[in-house]
Amino acid sequence: MTSLADHPISRRWPAQHPDRIQLYSFPTPNGVKASIMLLEAGLPFEAHRVTLSDSDVKSPEFLALNPNNKIPAIYDPDGPDGKPITLLESGAILLYLAEKSGKLLGETARDRHQITQWLMFQMGGIGPMFGQLGFFYKFAGSKVQDPLPRERYINEAKRLLGVIEGALEGRDWIAGTYSIADIAIAPWLNALEFYGAQDIVGWDQFPRTNAYLARFLERPAVQTGLNTPPREG
């Protein structure tokens, strides 16, 4: 593994604290997963603002770190066996940081599997479906005259919200105790307001999910992490 000083990423986003975990991200629902987890776990890190513009995420420097040209990505100078490691994909980063810190992954093997299943639920369901809902309801896809895409993602968002609502019966957090699964799921729930899609998905019909998001947003690490790195440079 190339040292941070020699890594291409440092040409564009030089580290002031190279002994810390380096976070390359932007405050999107996926991006804030990493910043919130780093703050919740109390791991020292340095955040670098990488916008979603092609000039950033498709730059040679960033592609050398993440060939999939998506945020977030991390460089940990003190990875497994004391050797540096780079990671892409927000779910993988959450698992890694939970293992590194020994936090938010449950107390038992059973806990871990329950938490992991809900993490995968977000990665495979909520993230892609809510993201497409945002595209077809708020962004460029909203100009598509065919109503089928919007209807598809609106209905799927409602279905997924129903799954969450049911899972939260009798519990405050999706897997029982606060975990990386909540850090994965809640930022995407929060995105519905940004998309202007709360009414269209019947947000008020999911009271447990409303309360769940409110609990999440009250956490100090969440409040800081939602703007780490800052949206404006």
From TrEMBL:
- Which InterPro entries does the protein's record reference? Glutathione-S-Trfase_C-like (IPR010987), Glutathione-S-Trfase_C_sf (IPR036282), Glutathione_S-Trfase (IPR040079), Glutathione_S-Trfase_N (IPR004045), Thioredoxin-like_sf (IPR036249)
What residue range is the signal peptide?
Answer: none
Task: State the EC number(s).
Answer: 1.8.4.-
Q: Does the keyword rRNA-binding apply?
A: no
Q: Where is the GST C-terminal domain?
A: 108-233
User: What does the record give under GO molecular function?
Assistant: oxidoreductase activity
**Pfam families, per this entry?**
GST_C_2, GST_N_2
What is the name of this protein? Disulfide-bond oxidoreductase YfcG
Originating species: Tropicibacter naphthalenivorans
Gene label: yfcG_1
